[in-house]
Amino acid sequence: MGLFIIFLSCGRTITLVDMKVIEMKKMSRREAMKQLGSKVVASAGIAGGAGLLTNQAHADEADATIEWKMVTSWPKNLPGPGMSAQRICDRINTMSGGRMRVRLYAAGELVPAFEVFDAVSSGTAQMGHSASLYWQGKMPAAAFFCTVPFGLTPSEHVTWIEQGGGQELWNNLYAPFGVLPLMAGNTGPTMAGWFKEEIHSPTDMKGLKIRAVGIGGEVLRHLGASAVSISSSELFTAFQSGVVDAVEFLGPWTDGALGFQKIAKNYYAPGFNKPNGTGEALLNKVAFEGLDKDLQEIVKTACRIEADIALAEANAANAYALSELINHEGVKLNGFSNELETALRVAADDVMADFIAKDNGAKEVYQSYSKAKSDYSGWSKLSLVSYLGLRDKD
């Protein structure tokens, strides 16, 4: 067995025992060690050998893969948000060329669905994927960065975030928790929900147990309903067992995948509660700022791309899924009566007024959000509503 002693300048020694049986993780290191051995044998290049070891150690450190965890509020690969979360991980892994790897943990695998924010804030995970309205109890203003009743449409929301000061307000809101937020998906406008019995008037809402989150849940409580917050992985069982009488979640594609049409056939639209569906990426500030600048840009770009792709996917998939539900699964598409729509609007105004009066942060965000809605409304009506009326005339 060959034995070589390398004397370093500091007086230490490194013993290399049988170079053929030393296990190295990287071929580059193995080759370097072989070269080092030949140099020691051939010319006793002690200082040069030590330099090779030191240089190789630095190279190995530079080549080390950065490992991140992403925790989510969704079952793995849930159509819509679950798929967005996985694509973001995959995109970062690919775009970084292997320098960075993000591993996804679905709801409940590492932390419960509604503890994603706290996990990222504490550093349990470096990244999360969720919806900001889930943090309304911690930060009332958080709901605006996903959606609020009778609020911005998806395109209007993006405009507010990127051009209307929304991103800065969002950053400021999460800053005390050491969390950076980014748009990272969009499920599009939602439906108003699945009901086991038809709903005709505000009276029918009294005593109704319905799964609804965010400010929309407060609106329904204002009408006498009992709004319950249930994670997406538990929704089907809760609906089937009677824990709730109705469920409001997302659009036809995701709702259909969860199987709500097997329990109820009354599907209501439009979704006054959530007219937009922005998904958020949560980044631990310390972890993010510890990345090289190019990796920071890769993370941000991966999220930005997903915001665009997910909305296009949702629009296409929801159109197809709605047709399938109605034409092949016996689902009845309903709209709320004028009386109930009016009651919902009045309740939403009352709830919002009370909501912003209790929290200065919510008031500041509300003012910016309301200005955006006012500023963009005229163009939205002209460019979208008026045009569709013209395009689709018989």
Using brief descriptors, characterize the structure shown.
single chain, 394 residues, alpha/beta, D-Maltodextrin-Binding Protein, domain 2, 13 helices, 13 strands, disordered N terminus
* CATH third-level topology of the largest domain: D-Maltodextrin-Binding Protein, domain 2
CATH class type of the largest domain: Alpha Beta
Q: Can you write the helix and strand succession as a string?
A: EEHHEHEHEHHEEEHEHEHEEHHEHH
Strand order of the largest sheet: 9-8-10-7-11-13
Given helix and strand content, the structural type is alpha/beta
Please identify, by name, the CATH architecture of the largest domain: 3-Layer(aba) Sandwich
Give the total of beta strands.
13
Describe the structure.
With 394 residues, the chain is α/β, with parallel strands linked by helices. The protein has 3 domains: 52 residues, no CATH class; 160 residues, D-Maltodextrin-Binding Protein, domain 2 (3-Layer(aba) Sandwich), CATH 3.40.190.170; 127 residues, D-Maltodextrin-Binding Protein, domain 2 (3-Layer(aba) Sandwich), CATH 3.40.190.10. Helix content is 49%, strand content 15%. It has 13 helices and 13 strands. The strands form 3 sheets. A 6-stranded mixed beta sheet has the order 9-8-10-7-11-13. The protein has a 5-stranded mixed beta sheet with strand order 4-3-5-12-6, with helices on both faces. It has a two-stranded antiparallel sheet with strand order 1-2. Helix 7 links the parallel strand 8 and strand 9. Helix 1 runs antiparallel to helix 2, helix 3 packs antiparallel against helix 11 and helix 7 packs across helix 12. The longest helix has 36 residues. The termini are far apart. The N terminus is likely disordered.
